[in-house]
Every structure is written in C-alpha cells, then in structure tokens.
Amino acid sequence: ATGDTRTITCKQLVDCTGNGTAAALAGFERLREKERQPGTFVYRIRPNADLSKFDAKELQARFEAAVKDGRLQRNDCRGSLLHYLQSGGNTANYVEGADNSTADARTETNLRGRAAALRMFRFLKDIPGLEKVRLESLSPEVGVRETYRVRGEYLITHEDYTSGRRWDDSVCYAFYPIDLHDKTSGVHPAHLQEGVVATVPLRALIPKGSRNLLVAGRCLSSDRLANSALRVQATCMATGQAAGAAAALAAQRGETPGQVPIAGLKALLTAHGAIVPD
Length: 278
Ligand SMILES: Cc1cc2nc3c(=O)[nH]c(=O)nc-3n(C[C@H](O)[C@H](O)[C@H](O)COP(=O)(O)OP(=O)(O)OC[C@H]3O[C@@H](n4cnc5c(N)ncnc54)[C@H](O)[C@@H]3O)c2cc1C
Fold this sequence. Notes:
The chain is an alpha+beta fold.
C-alpha cells in the first residue's frame, strides 16, 4: 500500500470507524462472524411510466426469467418487482458479503453494489413500457451492516438486550428490535416487549485490556444478535456522546475511561442533554 504516514498523539482515543479499526491496530481483539449480514446499495430509479398499467405477476415472471438466464441475481431485487418500481428501487437489494473494513474490501463491495444497480437498470429498460426508466441517484457507497465488533470489558448479550438489563455503568439507552438480515430469508425484526428498554454499559465501549481507548457506534462490544439491534443510528449517536464524555473526563482527571466516576460521567452527559439511565 502507498500513502502518507502521520503520527497523531492524544490523551484518549475514541474509535468510531464502525469496524473497530483503531482498536485492532492497537492490538485489541475483534469479533467477526463467518457469515455476516448482507449490505445494501441504496439507489433510486424513476420508472417514467404509468405503473398501474403493469401486471405484477407478469413483471415477476420477467424477473424470474432474468435470474434464470443470468442477467440478474436473485438479491438484485428482493420482493415484488412492481413494489420495487413503485418505491424507486431504494433498499430492495442485498449485496452479499459486503465489507468495508479494508480499502480493498470496500472497493470490491462498492463495485458489486454498482454492478447490481446497472444489471437492474438494463433489465428494466428492456421491458416494454419501461424504456424511459432513469437512474436518478446512487449512494456514494454500499451500506454495510456488519463487519467486526470489539471484545470489550463487558460484552452485551442477546439476553441482556432483550431483558432490558441495567448496570451501574449504563450510560445510554437502546431501543431497536433484534434485526438480523439474512441473504436468503431477509429480515424478520423481533421487537422488544412493551416496557423493556435496553441499555449500554460503559464497559462495552472499552476494548478489553485497553487503557486510553474507547469505541462508539456499531462496533461496540456485543454478541451478534444484540449487535443487530445496537447498530442503529440513534444508539450509535448515544454511544458516541457517552464515549466522548468519558474520554473528556478521563483526559481532565488523568485517569483511564474505566476509572472515571460513573456519577460524574452521567452528570456530564445529562448536563449536555443526553437521556441517561438512572
Ligand atoms: C442499508 C442500511 C440501512 C440501514 N437503515 C437504518 C435505519 O433505517 N435506521 C437506523 O437507525 N440505522 C440503519 N442502518 C444502520 C446504521 O446506519 C449503521 O449501523 C450506523 O450508521 C453505523 O454507524 P457508525 O458510526 O458505527 O459507523 P459508520 O456510519 O460506518 O461511520 C464510520 C465512519 O468511519 C470512517 N472510517 C472507517 N474506517 C476509517 C479509517 N481507517 N480511517 C478513517 N475513517 C474511517 C468511515 O468512512 C465512516 O465515515 C442501516 C444500515 C445499512 C447498511
């Protein structure tokens, strides 16, 4: 590889790479599944056609034929083709094996995502009545759902998550259903029971054995099922605020993030508008 090497020194570091890259570079353990959730290449098409004139079954038969003869791949459009057209494509595809944890993997994933969009576009253009279909927008990158999680001082389990477990060092809430996408069966969210609100302990943001390092976002320390819920944006933001506050306190006090007084951390977060577990 080529490129610049820069040295940056800091008292505390918060790894928000989504992949635990900084934690791994510092030698801390990351967890990775053999089979990971598929990614999705978000793009929008404009059919430029009166969709009420199309027969859903006939469209679906065309899709099946194109998958059979190799023009398309099954996960280029999951679900009904008519719905795909009605919703403008959007998030209808799966990019299997999507990975953005290295430059090479990221490039390869993006190439496959764009190829999938191009396959669909060419296929649609050949359908009588859809000749004027347009590709309206493409996301800059394939959205990647799962790569690595760090192993932290605590690892949040599925049982912890779904029971709404509280710890003394719970620093933020989480709320999302267990939401694991499968390349064959899709996603079947399992909602939390009414009244159950999951939380994240500070220790799940501290790589095991580290001193001046935190993580925030989807790479927090959790098992696969818990992570399928914890990975969403609101929780990523809440962990980012909590990790940032812990890092600031640790830097001020000359301590490690694991040593900062939890009451002081919660007070700092609350003073900045965070919603913090009691
Ligand atoms: C298709 C799809 C749909 C989703 N839909 C929803 C939804 O509807 N609602 C929801 O809440 N969540 C959704 N999510 C989940 C959610 O968007 C992500 O899990 C979340 O944004 C992850 O946030 P993050 O900050 O941990 O990582 P990212 O948002 O991935 O941020 C990591 C950042 O670090 C940068 N980075 C990585 N490595 C390096 C490096 N070595 N050097 C410098 N920079 C680096 C990256 O470029 C990136 O900017 C979806 C995810 C996908 C893939």
